[in-house]
Design brief:
It catalyses: hydrogencarbonate + H(+) = CO2 + H2O. The protein is an alpha+beta fold. It is about 15% helix and about 25% strand. The structure holds zinc ion.
């Protein structure tokens, strides 16, 4: 069987193995809503644990509905300096998460540019994914949902830590990177693969794995074109959904292999259920401006 046929067949067969969703609790009186949230139950608003507001995330991103403006590109500070080991990937019950430590020369990776005023220090990264029969990015681009979305969470250097930063409109900046399954990735991204390689070791809630070898934060971008992005003001996509986030979502996806994505599908949540479709549903835009920064040839690519 040609490889492409085999791949399609795999995609068709795999959902059968994943359709046995656990039963939802019958007498759900809402008690879990205060202290506990879970993608299996709600996915949409996690039973009220999210704050409500007019600038929630994720949203639908489209070039035609964005303001094309001249804007500085995102600049990356200390993104090409090695991070201080150990780097730990953890299953926190909602995602695969990695705290971003300081670099070997005792500085912190940070970003500036785009809509951001001042420096935003990298705090952590995590992923959102789907299931064998559903793509799991949070934002959609041109009405397309991608297979995986990576978030790199940064905190405004004006504030002492992430919990403090979440209290302010300008507190947090998240970079969003899309991944698209391709059959034969023609690019090999050592940084990302070091992270993906540890996923089988963190299948269970609270399991941790150490990333092997050295890593710079810039390596998780592969060969991403970081000059083209959507940017807007929104919220965290997990409880409490604080409206403290300036989003920068790069418009071009990175390639990812099917085996790498399927490692995400094997993770389990805190109650032992399969941790799949850990994305929040699209939220209303409510007339918020969305800006798009690009180069002319890129616009033609996106509009086809
Ligand atoms: Zn996220």
């Amino acid at each position: 069987m040609p490889e492409s046929r085999l791949f399609q067949k795999l995609l068709l067969l795999l959902p059968l193995a994943y359709t046995n969703k656990p039963q939802l609790p019958h007498n759900d009186d809402g008690d879990h809503r205060v202290h506990h949230w879970n993608y299996e139950y709600n996915g949409n608003d996690w039973g009220g644990t999210c704050r409500t507001g007019l600038r929630q995330s994720p949203i639908r991103l489209a070039v035609q509905k964005s303001l094309l403006v001249a804007m500085p590109r995102i600049t990356f500070g200390n993104y090409d300096t090695k991070l201080r080991p150990p780097l730990t990937l953890v299953n926190n019950g909602h995602s695969a998460h990695m705290d971003i430590p300081e670099t070997l020369d005792n500085s912190r990776p940070f970003i500036t540019g785009g809509l951001l005023k001042g420096r935003y220090i990298a705090e952590g990264l995590h992923f959102h994914w789907g299931s064998p029969n559903w793509r799991g990015s949070e934002h959609s681009i041109q009405d397309h949902r991608y297979d995986v979305e990576m978030h790199i969470v940064h905190r405004n250097s004006r504030y002492a830590d992430l919990p403090e930063a979440l209290k302010y409109k300008d507190g947090v900046a998240v970079l969003g990177v899309m991944f698209k399954i391709v059959q034969t990735p023609d690019a090999f991204f050592p940084g990302l693969n070091k992270i993906f390689a540890q996923l089988p070791k963190i299948k269970k809630y609270k399991e941790e794995a150490t990333i092997l070898g050295s890593l710079t934060l810039g390596q998780v971008f592969g060969n991403l074109n970081t000059r083209d992005f959507f940017t807007y003001r929104g919220s965290l996509t997990t409880p409490d959904c604080e409206e403290a986030v300036t989003w920068t979502v790069f418009s071009q996806p990175l390639p990812i292999s099917f085996p790498a994505v399927s490692r995400f599908w094997n993770l389990r949540s805190s109650d032992g259920y399969r941790l799949v479709n850990n994305y929040r549903n699209i939220q209303p835009r409510n007339n918020r401006p969305v800006y798009y920064r690009t180069s002319p040839n890129q616009i033609n690519n996106l509009l086809g």
